[in-house]
Design goal:
Blueprint (H helix, E strand, L loop, with lengths): L1 H12 L33 H4 L9 E3 L6 E10 L6 E10 L28 H8 L46 E2 L5 E2 L10 E8 L14 H4 L3 E2 L7 E2 L1 E9 L5 E3 L10 E3 L2 E15 L5 E13 L5 E12 L21 E3 L8 E2 L9 E3 L14 E3 L6 E10 L4 H13 L6 E3 L12 E11 L9 E17 L6 E17 L6 E14 L28
Parallel strand pairs: 9-13, 12-14, 21-23, 22-24
Antiparallel strand pairs: 1-2, 2-3, 4-5, 6-14, 7-8, 9-10, 11-12, 12-13, 15-16, 15-20, 17-18, 19-24, 20-21, 22-23
Length: 543
């Protein structure tokens, strides 16, 4: 019918309903539950407050300035009134620009949408859509239905973020830990990418051990993990290994972990009780969990025991990467390896040190034969806080050529791939560029013979590494931080030996740690003294 068609056309031509209520919008309202001076839109201001205003700091409040037509809240003061009062008007404001937005009908622009991550499966599709000089973000259907609701999951993340609880189908992944006392609490959620290790005390009763959930393996693996928060994709927790511990502490690794061992009472003992759980979570670089495994330690509980100590641990590893052990959190711990790396070309941050699997700074490892040529490839990690020295002996004959010999000795001293950077903290990550200290390399040549001799060869004979560190942070719990690393290679010049002659040269490698921390306070000897006598009543009425 014509009346229905006209009503529909009028409804289409009418401007969309405003999304922002400008009457409630106030950009100068800065104080909580207090009236801001000259802020005429502040709802905390009373008529008495408005009578004291001299002007309105924000006379006009609007929403999106790019809209063609919108509501505007106009504020002013009637100074002729006694007392002066505020005047509020809500008007229709028209944008004079010919380039304006008629309607905000693109709902996807009203909230932040996580971008689609390129993968080998969707790369061609994304390239066809966004690879050209221009592309369209037009949705499937344009409509003027301003009453359409934003999807309820529009603001939900499609991936795990650091510290977010690892969700399961019923709640979250439990990592029992002590809360107030040393007793276990099962309400502690495991945080994504947060490596934790806890120990707590669990009250037990041998007669009821088969009914205590916390002693059963099923309690820790029966709930599947959500691959991403609030999704329907599940990741089952598999049993990686089972270790059985006897009453005297002896542990035995079972050959198979396919069969669940549930707690039961046998000969007055509670066997197969969970004493420890070690979770290992594998995730992608986009924050999606793809694999979960648990390693168990089961043990026996005697009937005299009223409680047991349980240990729990969780670690996270990104797929297609090898886990790198840390040397402190955050500061270095004495005796743990110094972490090192180098920066490949084209990478904005230091990558893992490829010469060994642990990303450590290493030096020459002494062997029983003390032969430098046989010691090539043998390395020892540099341990934080430990001054170290090692060496070998080089037997030089007349048949040896200078350049290959010098390169061989350099490889013996520095290794195949000497790092360019050292981690300033024990838990420095590769992407944190400022947490990596460059290694300064120096070359020192020592003249061992007269320079007038004709045939000579210069070879490296020692590598000295000096690590300067400082105490960082609170004086109560200072953290060790490396601030400078210098590697000095000393070389010597040798005369070419006549035939049938040989010479033995010692080759050394050393590491020295130097604490350059400033003293927390000056020595009392540096304090000035005043030789005066105070009046007898100077501290009156105090003694």
């Amino acid at each position: 019918p014509a009346d229905i068609r006209d009503a529909a056309q009028a409804r289409v031509r009418s401007p969309p309903a405003p999304i922002t209520d400008v009457a409630r919008l106030c950009v100068c309202d800065l104080l909580v539950a207090q009236c801001d001076v000259n802020c005429c839109c502040d709802p905390d201001c009373s008529a008495e407050d408005f009578s004291l205003f001299t002007s309105c700091s924000v006379p006009v409040v609007t929403g999106d300035s790019q809209l063609c037509s919108q509501k505007a809240a106009v504020y002013s003061l009637d100074v002729e009134a006694n007392p002066p009062e505020r005047i509020f008007k809500l008007i229709d404001q028209v944008n004079p620009s010919i380039f304006c937005i008629q309607a905000t009908n693109y709902k996807q622009a009203l909230y932040l949408k996580s971008p689609e991550i390129p993968t080998p499966e969707n790369f061609d599709q994304l390239l066809d859509k966004f690879g050209g000089a221009a592309f369209s973000a037009e949705p499937d259907s344009w409509n003027w239905d301003t009453d359409a609701q934003i999807p309820p999951d529009a603001n939900e993340t499609s991936r795990y973020e650091y510290g977010a609880p690892v969700q399961t189908e019923d709640a979250f992944l439990r990592l029992p830990s002590p809360v107030v006392s040393s007793w276990c609490s099962d309400a502690n959620p495991a945080g994504f990418l947060v490596n934790q290790a806890t120990k707590c005390i669990r009250s037990v009763s041998v007669e009821k051990c088969d009914s205590i959930q916390a002693l059963s393996m099923l309690f820790y693996i029966n709930s599947s993990i959500l691959a991403v928060p609030k999704s329907s994709q599940m990741v089952n927790i598999t049993v990686q290994s089972i270790v059985v511990q006897s009453l005297n502490g002896m542990r035995t690794l079972l050959s198979t972990s396919d069969v669940l061992r549930l707690p039961m009472v046998l000969d007055g003992l509670c066997i197969n009780a969970v004493l420890g759980v070690n979770y290992h979570i594998t995730h992608t670089d986009t924050g999606e969990i793809i694999e979960a495994a648990a390693a168990f330690v089961l043990g026996a509980i005697s009937k005299e025991a009223l409680s047991i100590e349980q240990s729990f641990e969780i670690s996270f590893t990104q797929e297609n990467t090898q886990p790198v052990p840390l040397s402190g959190n955050p500061g270095y711990v004495v005796g743990l390896p110094v972490r090192a790396g180098f920066q490949p070309q084209g990478y904005p941050f230091p990558a893992a040190f490829l010469s060994n699997k642990h990303s450590q700074l290493t030096i020459l490892h002494s062997t029983s034969t003390q032969d430098c040529l046989a010691a090539q490839g043998a390395r020892a990690p540099v341990l934080f806080g430990y001054n170290m020295i090692s060496g070998c002996k080089l037997r030089i004959t007349a048949a040896m050529k200078c350049q290959p010999l010098a390169q061989t000795l350099l490889d013996v001293l520095k290794g195949q791939s000497f790092p360019e950077y050292v981690a300033s903290f024990g838990n420095s990550q590769a992407q944190d560029v400022l947490d990596w200290v460059p290694i300064t390399q120096l070359l020192i040549s020592e003249q061992m013979i007269s320079p007038t001799l004709q045939s000579s060869c210069q070879i490296p004979v020692s590598l000295g590494i000096e690590v300067k560190w400082t105490k960082y942070g609170s004086l109560v719990n200072p953290q060790a931080r490396i601030v400078n690393v210098t590697a000095t290679i000393s070389s010597t010049t040798l005369k070419q030996l006549p035939s049938a002659r040989e010479r033995i040269i010692p080759v050394t490698s050393s590491v020295v740690f130097t604490d350059i921390s400033s003293p927390a306070e000056p020595s009392y000897k540096a304090w000035p003294t005043i030789d005066i006598k105070l009046p007898f009543d100077f501290f009156y009425p105090f003694v």
